[in-house]
């Protein structure tokens, strides 16, 4: 067992050998289409075996918003990964804990190498698998996104969409971040809001403002983080002429119509959140405000890139 290439000497971590082998014509950059195709292939194979598995993260947003790839390009979101010119480095999935053993068998049959469990992966309810040719890794979470400043519960929600999690949960997955919300996350939120409606009915192509409002009305901390991120996102798009450069966005590429549409959708969502009656627990916790830590620490700012845009917005606040 050995792992070669960018993963270094990790043979002790995996249950089988992985050797990084990229086609020469890729020139060291894995095409976005490869991530799209492989993520959807894995979901289809899981579905054949009765396993509910859904794509999440920035890749899930891109797959669910493919008709708006031109808009993503305007935001410079395409090709903005860790490897210059490569958009993604991994694939994130959410599944139900009851399918944990079946998923292990599924990835084994597909040639993936499983990373051995560590205290960290066990505590965060996740399994990590490496592509048979070392192209990327797959991160699979169960029932709940625990590696989060505000954990997001997916129990009973994965059947709402296919092959990704619902767009409502995609937005929640992004706006729950406090310590690690960076430029890519900002752009993912903008793409999600541009590509979908904001409404009340919980329809497949609609961000369910009612569900979000009810969820945040129970948890002051989550409410504070989510609404702060939404307001800052709204501020960014409203003042993109001043702030665009901080996020490597050419403000001239975004028309007034796009700006007004996104600002309006965020406004609609924030208004619905504010109207929702808050729980007793929410009201009690609100008294302490930010004097007491309101989120679960996951990442440290000094270990995560992309904070420049928030710093620019905070300066103007």
Task: Write a structural description.
The protein has one domain (3-316). It is 43% helix and 12% strand. The chain has 13 helices and 11 strands. It has helices at residues 32-48, 57-64, 69-74, 100-109, 119-123, 167-175, 183-195, 209-216, 220-238, 240-243, 256-275, 280-286, 308-316; strands at residues 3-4, 18-19, 53-56, 90-95, 113-114, 126-130, 137-142, 144-145, 152-153, 197-199, 206-208. The strands form 4 sheets. Strands 3-4-7-6-5 form a 5-stranded mixed beta sheet. α8 (209-216) crosses α11 (256-275). It is globular, with a radius of gyration of 20 Å. The model is unreliable at 1-10 and 300-311 (pLDDT under 50).
Primary descriptors:
two-stranded parallel ribbon, 43% helix, 317 residues, alpha/beta, 5-stranded mixed β-sheet, 11 strands
| Total strand segments | 11
- Overall average residue pLDDT: 87
Q: How would you classify the quaternary structure?
A: single chain
Q: Separation of termini?
A: 53 Å
Total number of distinct structural domains:
1
Largest sheet: 5 strands, mixed
Q: Helix and strand succession?
A: EEHEHHEHEHEEEEHHEEHHHHHH
Q: Uncertain segments of ≥5 residues (pLDDT<50)?
A: 1-10, 300-311
Secondary structure class reads alpha/beta
Contiguous helical run count:
13
Rg over C-alpha atoms, rounded to the nearest angstrom? 20 Å
Q: For the largest sheet, list the strands in their spatial order.
A: 3-4-7-6-5
Work out the strand percent. Answer: 5-15%
What is the strand and helix layout of this fold?
Elements: E1 3-4, E2 18-19, H1 32-48, E3 53-56, H2 57-64, H3 69-74, E4 90-95, H4 100-109, E5 113-114, H5 119-123, E6 126-130, E7 137-142, E8 144-145, E9 152-153, H6 167-175, H7 183-195, E10 197-199, E11 206-208, H8 209-216, H9 220-238, H10 240-243, H11 256-275, H12 280-286, H13 308-316
Parallel strand pairs: 1-2, 4-7, 10-11
Antiparallel strand pairs: 3-4, 5-6, 6-7, 8-9
Helix pairs in contact: 2-6, 2-7, 6-7, 8-11, 9-11
